[in-house]
Amino acid sequence: MSREARIEAIRRLEKARKSRIIVYFTGDRQPFATQIGEDTVLLFREHLETIGRVPRIDLLLYSRGGDMLTPLRIVRLIREHCGHFGVLIPYRAHSAATAVALGADEILMGPLAELTPVDAATVHPFNPPDPTNPQQRLSIGVEDIRSYLALAREEAHIKDDQMVQVFTHLNANVSPLALGNAYRTIRMARLAATKMLELHLDPAKDGQRIDSIVEKLTRELCLHAYPISRKEAKDDLGLNVTMSEGRLDKLLWKAYLAYEEYLELRTPFNPAALIQGATPPVPVTARGAIIESARRTDTFHTRGQVLLAPMPGGQQGPILNMQPPQWEVEYHEK
């Protein structure tokens, strides 16, 4: 979809919300999937400088997660440019994207919108090697460690005085440095979630509410990918959720579809199809993420080629040779 059509969809949503909107989508199309990362912070500053200080800013967000400290930096920056900050979620806002939502005065969620827990997984040089690829290290989910200890207590009925042996066994299979890093990671996730909520809630008055939300998102919901619906987010977690309904929901979903199409999220990448009837190498350009507002567009591009290479059995098959992806300014109205 063209930029003009995307901006028209955003303008209509801005009118309905009486706000200025910034769009941040990180794509999940393989092999070009992206995540929330610190390289976006300076780009957000550029968009905000273009917008200026306004009463309301909304962030239209789609992401499967990413760096857990970047949300705090982005949200603090946005809140310096507005009096009311909203996050609009038409579909997925997982993990680090959920952390972004925690920093909002209002979370507008459509019928398909979903948050997830913000517990963290960590890759560390001292993590165990991946059995399927010994050159890589396993990612350790912090809740996996807790669940192992809970299994010993609750299901195996191991007494407290025997838990030393259970922990010693864990220590023999996972480096103490990796365990310490995993514990530090969950503490960081809890701290970041707390700081996000304290941007708009008073710790003195709302301390119990803050603690409850953080506990549920970092400990009680023990499955990292568990989808939290808008009803659960509002009723069970106690977040400031507004249900997107009627005409507003249609505008929100239309805007989502515009960016889904632009990033080709529903189009599987098929290198074999690209070289049919063509002479390799065939150039490839893919968009992995976008930050867009009415007067500026930044896109995360990956460029490369599809080549033919020898395969087992004497056949030739397609391989993808890509350059390092980078952010590019596609449009900037001075």
Can you summarize this structure?
The protein has helices at residues 3-17, 41-51, 70-79, 96-102, 142-155, 163-173, 176-198, 203-220, 230-236, 246-262, 271-275, and strands at residues 20-26, 54-62, 82-89, 106-109, 121-122, 129-130, 133-137, 140-141, 241-243, 282-293, 296-310, 316-322, 326-332. With 334 residues, it is an alpha/beta fold. Helix 2 packs parallel to helix 3.
What report would you give on this structure?
This protein has 334 residues and is α/β, with parallel strands linked by helices. It has two domains: 3-116 and 227-270 and 286-301 and 325-332, 2-enoyl-CoA Hydratase, Chain A, domain 1; 121-184, no CATH class. It has eleven helices and 13 strands. It has helices spanning 3-17, 41-51, 70-79, 96-102, 142-155, 163-173, 176-198, 203-220, 230-236, 246-262, 271-275; strands at 20-26, 54-62, 82-89, 106-109, 121-122, 129-130, 133-137, 140-141, 241-243, 282-293, 296-310, 316-322, 326-332. The strands form three sheets. Strands 1, 2, 3, 4, 9, 10, 11, 12 and 13 form a nine-stranded mixed sheet that branches. A two-stranded antiparallel ribbon has the order 5-8. Strands 6-7 form a two-stranded antiparallel ribbon. Helix 7 runs antiparallel to helix 8. The longest helix is centred in the middle third of the chain and has 23 residues, at 176-198. The radius of gyration is 22 Å and the shape is flat.
Looking at the structure, what is the overall shape? flat
Q: If classified by CATH, what would the architecture of the largest domain be?
A: Alpha-Beta Complex
Question: In which range does the helix fraction lie?
Answer: 40-55%
How many structural domains in the coordinates?
A: 2
